[in-house]
Model the fold of this input.
Amino acid sequence: CRYHTQCPGQAICALRICIAAEPSGGVCQQQSDCLAGRACKHGICWQPAENANVPARCTAHEDCKSQTVCKNNTCVVSSPIDRDCSKHSDCPTGDACKFGICWRAIGLKKDVECVITEDCVGRTLCDRKGSCRPARPTSVACDTDKNCGLLERCKYNMCWRYISNLTC
Done:
């Protein structure tokens, strides 16, 4: 990797290798908003994770540290899904609210190719089913999905809209 955005989910790029990371507590819009040694990704500052791959037992999301959520009584690695929240019920069913954003477990569904829009390349967006679908940019500039309309996503600082599969 050369950029943090080339690493999937919660991973960041360090010495050209994607490594597991955890939020360091700060919010950011660009790299300079984070402390030295931290990375700006998904609007929050990240730091290299300590023991990120050690699974822990849990009964609730609160039992899990940093970027993990509770699934089947085990803390599993998760990824932010670019939705703000203040409690778990603000997130889609099964997802967790941590650090003010919703998080989804990674790798639980066999056919999921994406968790967040950043996982999709080129002119595609991640839909709710975990598929990268064709999309087109609108003329609206954005910093986050909040700047875009309903069913639109912010990508490359422009609002994008899914291209419908329906034909007339």
Remarks:
- The two ends are 43 Å apart (CA to CA).
- The chain has three domains: 4-48, 61-105, 117-162.
